[in-house]
Specification:
By secondary structure, the chain is an alpha/beta fold. The protein has six helices and eight strands; from the N terminus they run H-E-H-E-E-E-E-H-E-H-E-H-E-H. Helix 1 (8-16) packs parallel to helix 2. The longest helix has 23 residues, at 90-112. It is globular. The N and C termini lie far apart (38 Å).
């Protein structure tokens, strides 16, 4: 039987309890995937006593069904494609990529503010999200972390689809996924409170951990 989390903070506490081996390790940094992963990551960072930052990635959603991803984008032009619908035309995909690239740049400016660009050289990057559906966003996050110099990349989530989990296992150094229900459906099914996380919530979480 699947666990239903009260909210992302409760889910983050559960994830953190599986990562206690990282407590006290000075090279660890916790990265919340913007935006939904940030409250989960904040709880993890609190438990581990590790710094919190964000990794801005954008899902590439099919125009007529935005919740269905055909890939994802990350800083520095990193892009991952999944097997999208065969009816998706190249021009339609290009339009989505253009729009999401602009939004990614906006969020980078907003969340980084006066802080320097993210540098993960020789760090253990713990990438946290509120769940894995297709795994596309987490895959691009792993690629970005490696491009930024991470020595080790850990993906940590409260819940995920089995197929997405298996994909990540092949790409990250470690994947912590608390539950992988046979009938997944959507990440929102496993939360009582799954409100859309705002920019203000993200910036407040980062300010609290500076």
């Amino acid at each position: 039987m699947s666990t239903i989390y009260q909210d992302r903070t409760e889910a983050g506490v559960g994830v953190a309890n599986r990562l206690t081996a990282l407590i006290g390790q000075p090279d660890v940094i916790v990265l919340g995937l913007v935006r939904g992963g940030v409250p989960v990551a904040a709880a993890v960072a609190d438990r581990l006593g590790a710094p919190l930052d964000v990794l801005v990635v954008r899902k590439l959603g099919v125009p007529w069904a935005p919740e269905v991803a055909f890939g994802a984008l990350g800083p520095g032009g990193v892009q991952v494609r999944t097997d999208g619908p065969t009816t998706l035309e190249p021009e339609q995909a290009d339009e989505v990529v253009h729009r999401e690239t602009a939004e990614l740049a906006r969020r980078e400016r907003l969340y980084r503010a006066d802080r320097p660009p993210l540098d993960l050289t020789d760090r253990t990057a713990v990438i946290v999200d509120d769940g894995l559906a297709t795994g596309a966003t987490a895959r691009v996050a792993v690629a970005v972390a490696r491009e930024l110099g991470a020595q080790r990349v850990v993906v940590a989530v409260p819940v995920g689809a089995e197929e997405a989990y298996e994909t990540l296992v092949a790409e990250a150094d470690e994947v912590v996924c608390l539950q992988r229900p046979a009938e997944f459906g959507a990440v929102s099914r496993f939360y009582e409170d799954f409100h859309e996380v705002s920019d203000d919530e993200v910036t407040a979480a980062l300010a609290a951990h500076r």
